[in-house]
Amino acid sequence: MRIVDEGNNEVRGVFHVSNYETVLTFVPGEEWKPGSYVLEIEPRLEDLAGNNLNHLFDTDLDQKQPAPKTVFRKSFRVN
């Protein structure tokens, strides 16, 4: 996982997992600057049961699946 700014520069900081691995918090190394950011997550991140962002446990593997993504992206803005 990483966060990048509008110039595709990685935002330095630390991710923390808490509350029995149900909460993820990011603390940036510097104060947030106003602008657009993207959280990028590689789909190989998985839980103990083997669920990941490309193959969830309740997926029918006999059905045709879309091509796996290489990175999932979620945009957000800091005002």
Nutshell version of this structure?
The chain is mainly β and 79 residues long.
Polypeptide structure, described:
The protein has one domain. It has no helices and five strands. 0% of the residues are buried. By secondary structure, it is an all-beta fold.
Topology:
Blueprint: E1 2-4, E2 13-18, E3 23-28, E4 35-41, E5 72-78
Antiparallel strand pairs: 1-4, 2-3, 4-5
Task: Estimate the mean pLDDT confidence.
Answer: 84
Largest sheet: 3 strands, antiparallel
Distance between the termini: 22 Å
Order of helices and strands: EEEEE
Structural class by helix and strand composition: mainly beta
Defining traits:
79 residues; 37% strand; mainly beta; globular; two-stranded antiparallel sheet
